[in-house]
Amino acid sequence: MKQLAILGSTGSIGRQCLSVVEALPGRFSVVALAAGANLEELGGQIERHKPEVVSVGDAQKADELAVRLREKGISLPAIHHGREGMLAVGTHSAAEIVVSAAVGVVGLEATYESGKAGSDNRAVE
Question: Which residue spans within the chain are E strands per DSSP?
Fold first, then answer.
């Protein structure tokens, strides 16, 4: 089973990637997700895929995500935010494939660092 990290998981390409994961059970596992501000979509992704690490745009969104997950009784992954959060997702030690679907340059550094760490990158925009 291939372990995935997805930068930009709540955008169009990130959601499509997760649809492929769901259509191919047993082939992929999601270990890390990064999103900006769409906490509703990210919460559903966390509930379905149970990643170990997630990242959102800022500290306020990170706190809000934790509250939402607790209210739903969902186990909390490690929640990061900002630049460091994107790097945590992109360089997650278990990620064999990093899908870079974040808009613009926001995921560039994390994509670069994931390649240095040995992940198989799939950069898409």
Answer: 2-7, 28-34, 53-56, 78-81, 97-100, 120-123
Strand, helix or coil at 82? helix
For the chain, the average pLDDT equals 89
User: 23: burial class by Cβ within 10 Å (0-12, 13-18, 19+)?
Assistant: exposed
| Whole-Å CA distances, 54 to 24, 27, 33, 61 | 22, 21, 5, 12
| 65 touches 42 (CB < 8 A) | yes
pLDDT at 101: 82
DSSP string, 46-68: HHHH--SEEEESSHHHHHHHHHH
Sign of CA dihedral 120, 31, 105, 118: negative
Q: Which two three-digit tokens encode residue 75?
A: 């186990």
Taking only the tens place, the pLDDT of each residue in 51-63 is: 999 999 999 999 9
Residues of the chain falling short of pLDDT 50: 121-125
Rounded distance between C-alpha atoms, residue 82 and residue 70, angstroms = 21
